[in-house]
Amino acid sequence: MSDGTLTITDRAAAVRDPGFCRFHTDNTVVVQWSADHGWSDHSLEPYAPMTMDPGTLVLHYGQSVFEGLKAFRQPDGSAALFRPADHARRLARSARRLAMAEMPVSLFLDACAHLVAADDSWIPEEPGQGLYLRPLMIATESALGLRDSRRYRCTFLAYPADPCFGRAFTPISVLTSAGTVRAVRGGMGEAKCSGNYAASLLTRKQANARGYDEVLWLDGLEFRWVEELSGMNVFFVWRDDDERRGVRLTTPPCQGTIMRGVTRDCVIALAGDLGIPVTEEPTPIDALMAGARSGQLVEMFACGTAAVVVPVGRIADGDDDTMIGDGQEGAVTAQVRHTLMEIQHGNRPDTHGWLRSVRKDLASVHSSTDRQ
Q1: φ/ψ (deg, to 5) at 170
Q2: 202 and 90 within one domain
């Protein structure tokens, strides 16, 4: 992690080969809310540590939500945010679930644009790379009574980033959650809150110890229905019974236990554009394992802002470990990722209006389509 003292030469090297969020940029943007005054204007501030009272509510009762979105270099040298209004709306939904103040979409967009404009030189340019933005909103009131806070602070951070599993998009392996529950309906499964991710860490650590890259979470009642990975949604490519169609794509439905991924929504839209049938349908783990063994399941991939689209080459449920296809990336996975990245980097027409260009001079955002 950068301490803010990188030389110009070191910074250039960091931007060319950033890894995943190893180096923070020079600045942050801060927005505050209080019960008495509402939302403040956003302010650009140098990246610096935060000082916090040990009695601050977030440390005791976990009122903490965040987002993850990216800005990409465009062919004309400008920068563009990818679907920021959708991330703003999801942050507001997460905040609502934790009884926190809901930030207006326009304020979120202005804050993101200001930060991207100020730290434009940190945006990497290779395919798959981008400037990763992490808006983090926390309760800042000091009080020990069990209640919602009367003050919140949202800090927008930025990091040059490769995809979290690398730009080679090497297939990953997954292990099902054996009896561990991360989310149930009515809980916080679809809220992007810190506790949601903390609940996945132990099981992920145990999976890593067994040689797997990620956890494939099952439902918390029957431990039968496939849901998502710790930080990514999942898709399955099946051989279609109608040979004229070739393959079909499925993904678990959003029923309150999994993240409503922005990248997931992109994949569904792009599959339609590419003529690939796609449906949201419940998938039992036994059918998934049987499909992998029989060859009916020809590909599996995970997707998210941090990872983009990464193939899953191997899946295990308990001691039942099987390869998906030949264990390598399949044609559908590669096509979907390539199409998405081409749009993100401005090399393919943005027919869905997902890109919002950042005007460096005014640090504002404009778009040809109104998605607020």
Answers
A1: -65, 140
A2: no
Contact (CB, 8 A) for 11 and 24: no
Q: Which class for 179: exposed (0-12), middle (13-18), buried (19 or more C-beta within 10 A)?
A: exposed
Which residues form the domain of 147? Answer: 8-164+348-366
Q: Are 225 and 195 in contact (CB under 8 A)?
A: no
Say if strands 38-39 and 226-229 run parallel, antiparallel, or are unpaired: unpaired
Q: What pLDDT, in 10s, does the model give residues 271-280?
A: 999 999 999 9
Is 67 within 8 Å of 134 (Cβ atoms)? yes
Within a domain: residue 14? Answer: yes
**Which residues, 6+ apart, have CB-to-CB distance to 326 below 8 Å?**
none
Whole-prediction pTM value?
0.93
Write the DSSP string, 105-126. Answer: HHHHHHHHHHHHHHTGGG---S
- Mean pLDDT of all residues in 323-336: 97
Say whether both 115 and 216 belong to one domain: no
User: How confident is the model at residue 173, as a pLDDT?
Assistant: 98
Whether residue 2 lies inside any domain: the answer is no
What is the structure's pLDDT at 8?
67
Rounded Cα–Cα distance for residues 364 and 42 (Å): 12
Please indicate, yes or no, whether residues 196 and 299 belong to a single structural domain of this protein.
yes
Q: Do residue 273 and residue 323 come from a single domain?
A: yes
Could you list the beta-strand ranges (E) of the chain.
27-34, 38-39, 43-46, 64-66, 69-73, 79-82, 130-139, 151-161, 172-176, 214-218, 226-229, 233-239, 247-251, 278-280, 297-304, 308-317, 320-323, 355-359, 364-366
**Amino acid code (one letter) for 44:** L
Strand 38-39 relative to strand 27-34, pairing: antiparallel
Which tens digits make up the pLDDT trace of 143-172? 999 999 999 999 999 999 999 999 999 999
What are the pLDDT digits (tens) for 184-217?
Answer: 999 989 999 999 999 999 999 999 999 999 999 9
pLDDT tens for 283-307 read: 999 999 999 999 999 999 999 999 9
